[in-house]
Amino acid sequence: MKISLLSFLVFILLLLPYAHALQFNMSDSKDVENPSFDIVEVGAYEKKEIQYFWLRVAGNVDLSPSNNTKNYEVNITLSEGYVHLYLISWEEKEEKMSFLKSSSGLNYLFNNYSINGGNVTFWISSDYLKKYGNITSLVYIAGEENLKNSKVIYLDMVHYPPLPEKDEEKSFPWVLVLGTASVALVMIITILLVIIFKRRR
After folding, report:
1. DSSP label of 167
2. Beta strand spans in the chain (E)
3. How confident is the model at residue 107 (pLDDT cuts 50, 70, 90)?
């Protein structure tokens, strides 16, 4: 009886919004064929009012130019909005970039990240997150896809707190493709508008 009550209380606590100072680490046993996109561990911690989110893949982080888009992300859902952190190399482009997408819009100048072998770490002010309430869930993503053909090549997603097994089976990668594609489209339109404006001047 006591064990059942304790299990129930733990389950209820997992459903409650997280405090701003989030700290945990969690392993992921699901395998992806390409080790550069196979997430093996994720976590978060806060230090000096800065919240850090990190993921580790089995191999080395791969953002080398190719015909595909490669991305490492942390999608943060909060009680009053969302904040998504992206590190991406676009298909058929030489450069890689990091940006933030939130309930308030896009921030192209978000460079708060580091890469160390197979580790990617993002960081963001705890005060910034407070604007959107308490953290309710996180999704860590490592993927490679071809947006032109709407094709997912490799994809690993880790949810915190973990999804029940049935819900995890229903988790479909098109969310990643469509989300990345829409962000890419917005960026392309913005770049084209800037070029047109400069030429007219």
Report:
1. H
2. 24-27, 39-47, 50-57, 69-78, 81-89, 96-102, 105-107, 113-116, 119-125, 135-146, 151-160
3. confident
Q: Cα 196 vs. chain centroid, distance in angstroms?
A: 32
3-state SS, residue 85: strand
Tracing tokens 């993002």 back to the chain, one arrives at 122
Q: Is the pLDDT of residue 184 over 60?
A: no
Compute the average pLDDT of residues 58-83.
Answer: 96
Handedness of CA 194, 110, 40, 135 (dihedral sign): negative
**Measuring CA to CA, how many Å separate 60 from each of 21, 35, 54, 142, 196?**
29, 7, 14, 12, 39
User: Which residues, 6 or more positions from 94, have their beta carbon under 8 angstroms from its beta carbon?
Assistant: 65
CA–CA separation, 133 and 136 (whole Å):
9
36 pLDDT band, cuts 50/70/90, is very high
Which one-letter DSSP state was computed for residue 33?
S
**Numbers of helices and strands, H then E, in the chain:** 4, 11
Exposed / middle / buried, residue 92 (Cβ in 10 Å: 0-12, 13-18, 19+): exposed
